[in-house]
Amino acid sequence: MPRVFIHPFAVPADAIDVYGHVNNLEYLRWMQDAATAHSEAQGWTLARYLELGAGWFVRSHSIQYLRPAYAGDPIMLLTWVSGFDRRTSPRKYLFWRRSDRKVLAQAETLWAFVDFRTGRGVAIPPEVEAAFEVVPADEDVLRAVRTEPAEA
């Protein structure tokens, strides 16, 4: 069970905007992809959420862009759950370019647990919460990134 899920990818050419760097909408797409992959790795697939009749919906996103990313850049997208409330859970993200050890962006999504039938928020079931280890301090993740060797 990874505390911090790592979603590596290379920036595709179609993610580039008219300014020559990654379009901001791509970051949102990648955040959703990484969150979904992390959930699947923890045993919570879409099929399992459908069977439960409830799952995660985005309540809000926040992204701080620090440096641009370009086509072909090797990105390590790290994501982790930073807490749980009764019906919501904040998830954090770190976009890191391993080749030069630079953090490109930091982000957070507040996810709400919602009943699919009613569209209303519901309590997060204990079995869902138990699948994700909380990483309360961003510094733990940043420390691990800073000590990771750069690509050769």
Q: What is the CATH class? A: Alpha Beta
Q: Give me the Rg, rounded.
A: 16 Å
Seen as an oligomer or otherwise, the chain set is single chain
By secondary-structure content and strand pairing, the structural class works out as alpha+beta
Largest sheet descriptor: 5 strands, antiparallel
In terms of per-residue confidence, which ranges show pLDDT below 50 for 5 or more consecutive residues?
Answer: none
- Percent in helix: 25-40%
The name of the CATH architecture is: Roll
CATH topology: Thiol Ester Dehydrase, Chain A
Primary descriptors:
alpha+beta; 152 residues; single chain; five-stranded antiparallel sheet; Thiol Ester Dehydrase, Chain A
Describe the secondary-structure layout.
Layout: E1 5-10, H1 24-41, H2 46-52, E2 54-65, E3 74-81, E4 88-97, E5 102-115, H3 126-129, H4 138-147
Antiparallel strand pairs: 1-3, 2-5, 3-4, 4-5
Summarize it.
The protein is of the alpha+beta class and 152 residues long.
Report on the architecture of this protein.
- The protein is α+β, with helices and mostly antiparallel strands and 152 residues long.
- The chain has one domain (5-147): Roll (Thiol Ester Dehydrase, Chain A).
- The chain contains 4 helices and 5 strands, in the order βααββββαα.
- The longest helix has 18 residues, at 24-41.
- The chain is globular.
